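queue> pop job 88
queue> type: inverse folding (structure -> sequence)
queue> payload:
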């Protein structure tokens, strides 16, 4: 399986952001790569991620590690500043790197409102020019734009990570599967409404002790003497001591 080296932002002097929570460029790029790393591993990619050290020497070390490992793709994730409203994938200015970047461009659909994506050749940035693998260097959003940051932290980073997963699957000819593909559906217990339904303390009690009104759940599937046990919360189903009482089976049909 293809080897992908992940290199989230590692600024020695981390950049402040206008995020709705306490954050920084290194912080939210790390969170984005957390998601990306998880999904790539689920799909069978071989993944290595740069360590937590920051600064220029750490960047040099990441490039050495990526090259020594024999990465097929070196992927860098940053966020931008300067007042723009676009997302950008930078790459080495040759045919193979630009082709890979254009695959990313094809899948980069999830973007903050008003933003757009572009591919920009760049032969100056160290991680682009010093890695042996194809290198894609993303500037995901503008972290000095509060609207972009709010979108990014409200599900946007997960959507952008999934777009990148789709692009990598396309590039390496790996079948893409969504996160929940193949997982069995979870059947949630169905609630039913009662209105002044006679409530009994047992399946054999002759007189009701009161009535039940509102939404309830079957405590189990047993029917005894034409009665069933009920409870008021789905998490209480089957738990000892959480039976509200017994009602006629006919009330829940």
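queue> result:
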């Amino acid at each position: 399986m293809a080897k992908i080296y992940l290199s989230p932002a590692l600024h020695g002097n981390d950049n402040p952001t206008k995020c709705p929570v306490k954050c920084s460029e290194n912080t939210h790029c790390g969170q984005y790569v957390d998601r990306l790393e998880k999904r790539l591993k689920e799909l069978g990619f071989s993944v290595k991620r740069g360590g937590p050290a920051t600064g220029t020497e750490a960047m040099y070390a990441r490039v050495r590690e990526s090259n020594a490992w024999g990465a097929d793709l070196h992927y860098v994730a940053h966020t931008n500043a300067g007042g723009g409203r676009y997302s950008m994938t930078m790459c080495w200015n040759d045919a193979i790197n630009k082709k890979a970047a254009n695959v990313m461009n094809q899948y980069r659909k999830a973007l903050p409102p008003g933003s757009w994506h572009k591919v920009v050749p760049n032969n100056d940035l160290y991680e682009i020019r010093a890695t042996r693998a194809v290198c894609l260097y993303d500037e995901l959003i503008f972290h000095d734009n509060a609207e972009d940051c709010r979108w990014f932290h409200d599900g946007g980073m997960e959507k952008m990570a999934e777009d990148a997963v789709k692009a990598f699957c396309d590039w390496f000819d790996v079948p893409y599967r969504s996160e929940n593909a193949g997982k069995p559906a979870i059947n949630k217990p169905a609630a039913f409404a009662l209105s002044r339904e006679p409530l009994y303390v047992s399946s054999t009690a002759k007189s009701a002790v009161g009535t039940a009104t509102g939404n309830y759940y079957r405590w189990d599937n047993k029917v005894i003497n034409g009665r069933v046990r009920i409870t008021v919360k789905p998490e209480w189903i089957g738990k000892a001591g959480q039976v509200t009482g017994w009602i006629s089976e006919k009330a829940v049909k």
